[in-house]
Every structure is written in structure tokens, then in C-alpha cells.
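Researcher: Quick one. two chains, 820 residues in total.
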Amino acid sequence: MKSDLDGLMQARNLDALLVTGPGRHNPAMVYLTGGANLSEAELIKKRGAEPVLFYNLMEREEAALTGLETKNLGDYHLEFLIKKFDGDLAKALAARYQNMLADLSIRSGRVGIYGISDPGSAYAVFSELSKAAPGLELVGEPETSVLLEAMRTKDEAEVARIRRMGQITVEVVAATVDFVSTHKVRDRVLIGPEGSPLTVADVKSRINLWLAERGAENPEGTIFAVASEAAVPHSMGRDADFLRTGVPIVFDIFPCEAGGGYFYDLTRTWCLGYAPDEVYAVYKDVLDVYNQIVQELRPGELCKNYQQRACELFERRGHMTVRNDASARQGYVHGLGHGVGLNIHERPSFAGHAGEDDHFVPGVVFTIEPGLYYPELNLGVRLENTFWMRPDGQFEKLVDFPMDLVLPLE
Amino acid sequence: MKSDLDGLMQARNLDALLVTGPGRHNPAMVYLTGGANLSEAELIKKRGAEPVLFYNLMEREEAALTGLETKNLGDYHLEFLIKKFDGDLAKALAARYQNMLADLSIRSGRVGIYGISDPGSAYAVFSELSKAAPGLELVGEPETSVLLEAMRTKDEAEVARIRRMGQITVEVVAATVDFVSTHKVRDRVLIGPEGSPLTVADVKSRINLWLAERGAENPEGTIFAVASEAAVPHSMGRDADFLRTGVPIVFDIFPCEAGGGYFYDLTRTWCLGYAPDEVYAVYKDVLDVYNQIVQELRPGELCKNYQQRACELFERRGHMTVRNDASARQGYVHGLGHGVGLNIHERPSFAGHAGEDDHFVPGVVFTIEPGLYYPELNLGVRLENTFWMRPDGQFEKLVDFPMDLVLPLE
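Model:
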């Protein structure tokens, strides 16, 4: 967690962190500032010291709200530097960074670089900085940055913010149930009060509205995928699709605090009115694996072992899994879960190269989301909740909501 | 505009463009794909050829919706490359880029790099690519990229999307007027039906809702700034502030298409119920300068000349301007306008080093937004509309809305 950051910097031999980019929807910046309405900012944190935030003059009031020490970027005279370097903006920005770092007495050592930027600009500017300040070693961490490592566990204030997003999420899911279930049915299609079919777009626009009302947003969209779309794990759903009785819908909702803060992640699979036997059978397998996995969660265990375990449980029920075939398109074709925080996907990791040593420690917040997909049967089922491992070693589902397959129509 | 891109690449001697990052809220990617729900993608455009979109397997359906040629990133075997380079992800990603470029027969030449990424990762990965493929010259364009240069002018389809956002914007501003004006007043403070004071947070949550209902979002927030906050050009407004009669409010709203598409930008300044003489006098100066500037817009003229002209007009009325003092905090303290498109601020530019040769040509879409700020008087006024220079040389305000200072209460 954040209080570990200096120790983690020490372990990676990092003398300072440099974070660049907007104040919102920029996890590295939000993590160190708390979130601020800054269009562009720079932040430097020396190991063992509080961060210093560099703002553009017009945003001085917003910068001050962070409570951090602040400095005016205008005092670094970019226009003068541009002239000095004959209009070469990359050289001028590099010189400005050099001066900003020097003002914090950082003239040598290893400086990690994070945030959000245009990749070509970053390559150009930091290449120039590296040439201009050979005493500095500029470090990129494409795998797991020291910030992502710190974010792997959350303090109680962070968990409270994630849980609050969870409460908003289930309010919106409940509103979706109420909205959908009061529609009439004609020829197996749900029909609105004016007699026109209910579409995925209609449902999504309500969801956006209910999120906005509650101070949340869904910058990465919402999955509301019907039938053949449900059978493709990350199809967002087709706007024009109708809602039909007896056809599975995968509803995966992952909103964050407005302005780009903490996320929550929850998935339900619904059949409206009734569920055909083959859908129920697949749903039952997913639910059983979900329940079995949740029951088996243990402090100190490796996360990736649970992905193996999920594969084993699905295979025992006769399904193909990514363990048999990494490019499988039917059966169990994705990872079991992921960490959730300022990024919708972060550490701990349940699969893949990064985070293969991740295990359950106090403060991790993560999803468990087994699923089965059969594109040829127009059939997909996924069930997902978000959990926290508490300081006392207990695993706690952050919010609750029924996992029933059949959504009865009134 | 987009059809100029190959010519602009030729002029900059760029053989290919490489765009990385998410499919949404990533102007370079949205520009070349039209916008796609991809969490992460890579796109390569050779000069004279259509772009090729590289997707992650789980997002193949979303990638296909773009209509572009697509390739599966899975076919480039990142896990194998990570092992080959002993776990060095930067080297592995560099090798993958090298293979992707080679598949499009790009083994030498100048490759521009754009999009959104972690700056440290970009620095690390492209430094490795540069070492591994010395025949490639990797180009960062921190000033005005070839894509921003193309975006400087819009085709009619783009203007239609911006105008549509303008229509949504004025609907939401009209709804705000209706909402605010029906409140009662007690001791000069607006009071809701339950007797509690109306706050900036109340107004903003309605604005978010009305935007969401219309398929828009405001990823950069909305400025609704009262009194002393209005006197700071880019304060977003304080959530807890009350709305009071006779006190200026700067309302600057700049939503974009949901998912991160085209923006619109509009500002009004209101006094509720009545306007004190000193507020009206400042408003009148801003309105007069606005009207004078709009009247003087001419095809072919340099944009920056209008910033000079605005300074001249304000100085003639006795106000300080950024021309007298670049760090001024009172008077006319910012630029006159900016281009609007997939970025809320883009070319053409009215001030600063970049875009100093920008002039009014067919297809530019831009704001005109003079303002005056007097922090010691708790007073700020800004008025803004968005314009398009049409192919016939006429300047057209994209949508209309009254610019009155006083917002009468019912």
C-alpha cells in the first residue's frame, strides 16, 4: 500500500519518481495526489520525501487543493528554453525536467518515470534528458512499476472507496433488473410502453444515467451482451440487439469514481423469464466452480494456483480450458480474476508472466470471475464478484447481489 | 483533414505511423479507427496505405467493427519473446514491434510514434527497438504531430459530429437555466424544494445526468464557478458553494461524445436575478470585445493576430492584459481561443510557440472566448462560442444560445 512506497523504491534502488500527465484518469497521478482537476501536471517524489506537484499557472487553485507542496511550472521558463534550443521542444522539455529535478537536489541517481503521455514525445524528451544529464539513470518499468507494486494492496481508506463504488454498482444493477423486468413480451421480444422493442442501447443509456446520478462513470464502457455476443468474453454487446426471453445476457459492469478514481467490477448472467436446460447446465457449472473457488481461498496461497484449480474443476465437468489450449475460443477461455483499484485490471494477477508470484496477502482487492463460452450455441455465462482480504486474514465480498440466472418478468 | 494525411507524412518524411494505447479516449487511435471499444491495441499505417489494427484475441469482434484490416497480436508470441529475452519485457515488446513492422515490410525508414502510454515504458521499449532495429528511425513529435496537423482542419462528417455535440451542449445549458431559475431565494441564497441551499455540486450532478441521457460525457469535468472561484479562469468551482443572487457564475461546459470522441466548448457568465453595476460593466466589455472579434474574423488571417487584437481592445477599455504582463492574474489573462476536435484543445492555436503560423482556412473549428478576471472583486466573466470556417469562407457559429448576463428567477 501507499505507506510501503519508500521501502519499495529502496528495494528497486529508485531515488525518485517522476509522474506526468493529467490529474484525472491517470492512476499514477491520482495515487500520489488523491485526484485533482489538472489538465496537465508534473509530480516528483524523492525517496523518503513527500511528492512535489508542478502546476500550470491557470490551475494553481486546483493544485493547492491536493494539499501537496506545489511549484509553478511557469517559473521554469519553457518559452525561453525553446528559444535557447532553436525551437526544439524535446530538448527544451528535457532541460525543464533537468531544472525541476535539480531544484529538488536530484542531479544523479535512478529516476523512475510514470503517468500518461504520448509515447513518441516521451521517447524523444527522455532520450534528450538522458543525453543532457548523464548522471541520471532514467528507468521505465513496463512490467510492474513500483507504483503498481504499491497498489497491489490497499489501505482501509482505499477499500472504503472501492466498497462505495460497489454499493453504487449494485444499486445500478438493481435498477436494471427493475427496468428490464417490467417490460412486456411479444413474440419472445421485450417491448417498451410505446410498443417498440427494448434494445441493448436503451438499457445502456439508462445505466449511464443511473451511474451519473450517483457520481460514478464507466470510462471503459459496460458489457451488456446478448446471445452470440455473450459468447464472446469481451464483446461489449451490440447496441441494436433486442432483449429476448430465454436467451442469456452477460452483464459486466465496472464503473469508477467520477473523474477517474477507484473501480468496482461485477458480472451477472441473466435469462429473461426462463432458462433453457442447456443454458442452465452451463450456468450451474460456472456457479459451482465460483462457489468452490471462493470456498478454497486461503491467505498466503498463490493466486495463479486458483486459475489452475478453476481449469481443473471445469475440465472435470468436460469443458475445454485455456490450460488445454491457450488460444481456445470455447469453454473456459480467460483468467479467473484480477486486482481492482485505480486500474480496472491491476495486481494481484492470476495468470500471465507479470505477478506470477502474487499471493493472497492482507489488503489485496480482486475479482473472482469464472465463465464458460460456446459461440456455436450462442451461449456465454460469467459470474463475478470483488473480494478484499482483510487484515485479519478473512476474505470479504465487498458487496452482495443475487447471482440467479433467471430474471422473472412481471 | 484526414484525407491530407499521406501528403503530410510525405512532407515530414515519415514512412509509417505507429499508434498505441486504448481504443477510446485516445485521439490518435480514434482518428484512425473511428473509435473502437478496445482496451489496448496497436495500429500501423504505412504512407499511402490503409491502417492495420492489431488486436488482443479477446477483442477480435470489437476490432472487426472498425472495418480496418486486422491482425491478432497473439500471433506475435509475446510470452515466447519474454522467455527469449530472459524476462525483459521492454526487449520483448521491442522485438514484437520489430516483427509487426516487418510483416508490413517496414524494415527501415522513419516511423512516427503516437497514442497514449506510460511514458517510462515508452522510453524503455522504443529505446530497445531503436537498438534492435538500427535501420528504423523512431520519431517523436512533442510539438505538433502529423496527426494533430491533419486534425487542424475537419471534413464535413467531423463538423457534423461536433455540431451534434454542440446541440447537446445547448440542450444541457437550457436545462440548467430551467433548473436554477425555478429555485426560491432566501437571504440571497437559492433554496431547493426541501429548504436546503442549492450547491454547485447539485447543479453539476444534474449536468452529468443530462449529458449521460444524451450520449455525451465530460471527461475533463465542467466549470461552474461562483464569485471568487469565477475570478480564477480554470477553477472548476467549489462543490459546496451556494448559488447566490447578483453574484457572477462562470459556466464553461466542454463535453464529448461518450467513449471519447469529438468535443464542443461553450461558456456563459450569469448573474442570478440581477447584476450589480460593476459586474455588468465588466460583462459589457467582454461582450463588446467578443462581438468585435467575431465581426473581424477573416479567411487567411493569422489566428494569433486576433489575440493581439483582443489585448488591444481590452487595453483600450483600461484592462491589464497578458500582452502587458504574461503572468498577469487580473484583467485579460488567457488566450482568445483554440481549435476543438478529438482534443478539447488542439490546433489552430491563437497563442504560444506551436501554431504561431496558424491561420483561418476552410475546415478549422475553433472557439472565441474573451474574458476578464478580478480576483480582488470576486469577479470573473467569460463568453465563448465554437465556430467553423466553411469551405465557402464563411464563419459559422455551430450552435446558438443567448449570451445574457442576467438569468431571471421565476
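Residues 156-181 of chain B form the longest helix (26 residues).
Researcher: Thanks, that's what I needed.
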